[in-house]
Amino acid sequence: MLFISDIHGCLPALERALEWAQRKSCRHLILLGDVLNHGPRNPVPEGYNPPAVAERLNQWADRILAVRGNCDSEVDQMLCQFPLMADYNNLMLGNKRAFVTHGHLWNDTQLPPLAEGDLFCFGHSHIPMARWQEKRLMFNPGSITLPKGGFAPSLGHFDGKLLTVMDLDGNVIEQASINEF
Questions:
Q1: Distances 49 to 72, 85, 101 between C-alpha atoms, Å
Q2: Are strands 172-177 and 162-167 parallel, antiparallel or unpaired?
Q3: Which of 114-128 are b and which e, b meaning 16 or more Cβ less than 10 Å from the residue's Cβ?
Q4: Is residue 16 exposed (0-12), middle (13-18) or buried (19+ Cβ within 10 Å)?
Q5: What is the pTM of this model?
Q6: Which residues contact 103 (CB under 8 A, 6 or more apart)?
Q7: Using CA atoms, how far apart are residues 140 and 163, in angstroms rounded to an integer?
Q8: Please, which of 1, 67, 108, 175 could form a disulfide with 164 given CB 3.0 to 4.6 Å?
Q9: Hey, how many other C-beta atoms are within 10 angstroms of the C-beta on 179?
Q10: Over the range 35-57, which residues count as b (16 or more CB within 10 Å of their CB) and which as e?
Q11: What are the two backbone dihedrals, phi and then psi, of residue 61, each rounded to the nearest 5 degrees?
Q12: Over 90: is that where the pLDDT of 29 sits?
């Protein structure tokens, strides 16, 4: 599965991410929020085209699990043929529970209730992360559109054992095994 966060309506960045989804034969896309809108504090990205982003993602609608970001709204949901308005979701990665959210309500310093060995998947900060902290795996694929912290645009990939953050050229930024605990 491929993890994409903080698209912010940028069609060229989404196209590059979807190339990775096809290259890695991903069956599912996990969208960690801020899908269509650039947000009032962000610059309008080059290639900003929210209707085209929605149309492109709708082609994957049956393979998307999405959560709402702080820039997503009911108006955005009107364009998307997949549920977009949940604040969080839970999914199983192997035999591990993954709590999936955008990161504006819960984040790596304000966690929801998690057991040892659980995974916390979030976006929002635009800063990539894949590491164990206090026996919980913190995973943030960064942003494909508006990276921060000096990082390149990035996304996440899960191959059944490893959660990997990589830039859009395929260079690994961080990687962690889900079976460490």
A1: 15, 20, 24
A2: antiparallel
A3: beebbbbbbbbbbbb
A4: middle
A5: 0.97
A6: 32, 33, 122, 123, 124, 125, 140
A7: 10
A8: 175
A9: 12
A10: bbbbbeebeebeebbbebbbeeb
A11: -50, -35
A12: yes
pLDDT confidence of residue 180: 86
β-partners of residue 131 are: 138
Q: What is the pLDDT of residues 48-102, one digit of tens each?
A: 999 999 999 999 999 999 999 999 999 999 999 999 999 999 999 888 999 999 9
Q: Is the dihedral of CA 18, 155, 111, 76 positive or negative?
A: negative
The tokens of 53 are what?
A: 């982003």
Domain 2-177 classification at class level: alpha beta
Over 90: is that where the pLDDT of 151 sits?
A: yes
Nearest residue to 139 (alpha-carbon basis) of 154, 156, 160: 156
Torsion angle (degrees, nearest 10) of CA 71, 175, 65, 82: 60
- Does the pLDDT of residue 20 top 90, yes or no? yes
Ordered alpha helix ranges (H), the chain? 11-23, 50-58, 74-79
- The DSSP H or E segment spanning 36 is none
Please identify which residue in the block is written with the tokens 């990687």.
Answer: 175
Structure tokens at 109: 């310093």
